[in-house]
Amino acid sequence: MQAVILAAGRSTRTYPLTSTRPKPLIPIWDRPFLEHQLAQLSGIVNEALLVVGYRKEQIEAHFGDEHRGIRLRYVDQETQRGTADAVAAARPLVHERVLILNGDDFYHHHDLKALADGGRGLLVTQAPDPQNRAVVRIDNDVITDIVEKPADAPRGSWCSVGGYSVEASDLALLEDLPLSPRGELELPDFILRLVATSSVRPQRIGQWWLPLTYAWNVLTAMHHIWSAPSRARDLGVTTRVEGSLANVDTQGPIWIGDDVRIGDGVRLVGPTTIGAGTTVESDAVLEGVSVFEGAHIGRGARVLDSVLGQGVRIGEGATLESRPGSELSINVKGKIVVPELARLGSVLGDGAAVEASVSVAAGTLVPAPDGST
Fold first, then answer.
1. What angle separates helix 83-90 from helix 187-197, to the nearest 10 degrees?
2. Dihedrals φ, ψ of 341, to 5°?
């Protein structure tokens, strides 16, 4: 069986992290996001077609032509014209039943296997924000309609979560799709055609599903992983502490990469990850943070509930403050978003810096030094 993974977009809602890397390479705990997704597909598919575009060379260089026994092939979507257009680009390489998956969602192996084994189907769940999703109508356990982002959908409506199982022959229905109101070729319109000609079943999420929509969802994913022991086990993630931490106070799950230097008197509260080559100077405090590779955190700094991109520098005595997500309103591409997190600090793009003794307000998105936002 094959899979098509949609990973071509620029993903501006996850800026500043994606101003310098494609979304599939955002690290979640101990590995890039796409590695988690491929791990859940292991044993289900033997080939994955990765539809790439934005900074595609980084994805190809990282993964090569095989991962965990899955053959990888790359399909270039030169102009991002929508999800259906991405699948159409991969169509010439599809020759059997295929899973079509969003490249920015966590899916569980059991749900993917149930979807794959059942023939034509959609992964669905009762989402709290159906107005932002494709709402499906289900009659006698068959999907009869799908409406993209309806303004009047009641909370708890059944929604598609970007996972599809179709036959290779079904992809002929991609031809001559009309443009959506957003000017794109979208998969819900393809599914409408499929529903009109075939029986398409809803495959309800039995385990879990987690979208990676905004930059702070790196923290959402970490809390999701460690909120139940079975989730960490199912994702194959563990804690890891390298070297001697005799004079470091640790609490909760911690993952520390290679060649990390941590000074005396540092306090680490999990879930927290510290990427390879990072330096944390003495008496600093890190609570619920994701630190990418090569960062430098100065003496006595306090970094709370934040995401620090590669090579970020936090000055001595600086503070990244934290507040309940419900108290924050963050402007993302002109839309005000209230983060669904218990607490949130800041998100800093690669190479960003905070000067010594400076306090950064919770909910701040700090761009990379090149000005990307």
1. 70
2. -135, 145
**135 in Cβ contact with 146 (< 8 Å):** yes
Do 217-366 and 2-211 fall under one CATH topology?
A: no
β-pairing verdict for 365-366 and 347-348: parallel
Q: What is the DSSP secondary structure assignment for residue 240, as one 8-state letter?
A: B
CB within 8 A of 227, min separation 6: which ones?
none
Please report, as a single letter, which amino acid is at residue 160: S
Query: What is the residue extent of each domain of the chain?
Result: 2-211, 217-366
Cα–Cα distance between 286 and 276 in angstroms, integer? 16
Whole-number Å distance between alpha carbons of 317 and 249: 18
How far lies 101's CA from each of 112, 140, 268, 361, in Å?
10, 25, 36, 36
CA 251 to chain centre: 26
Q: Top-level CATH class of 2-211?
A: alpha beta
pLDDT 10s digit of each residue in the chain, 373 long? Answer: 999 999 999 889 999 999 999 999 999 999 999 999 999 999 999 999 999 999 999 999 999 999 999 999 999 998 878 999 999 999 999 999 999 999 999 999 999 999 999 999 999 999 878 887 889 999 999 999 998 888 888 888 999 999 999 999 999 999 999 888 888 889 989 999 999 999 999 999 999 999 999 999 999 999 999 998 899 999 999 999 865 577 899 999 999 999 999 999 999 999 999 999 999 999 999 999 999 999 999 999 999 999 999 999 999 999 999 999 999 999 998 889 999 999 999 999 999 999 999 999 999 999 999 754 4
Superfamily of domain 217-366: Hexapeptide repeat proteins (2.160.10.10)
Max intra-chain CA distance, the chain: 66
Residue 344 DSSP label:
B
Of residues 248, 280, 252, the one with CA closest to residue 267: 248
Location of structure tokens 């031809």: 175
Classified as helix, coil or strand, 61 is helix
Please say whether the beta carbons of 289 and 308 come within 8 A: yes
Query: Distance (Å, rounded) from C-alpha 223 to C-alpha 244?
Result: 26
User: Tokens for 126?
Assistant: 């009762």
Tokens describing residue 303: 């970094």
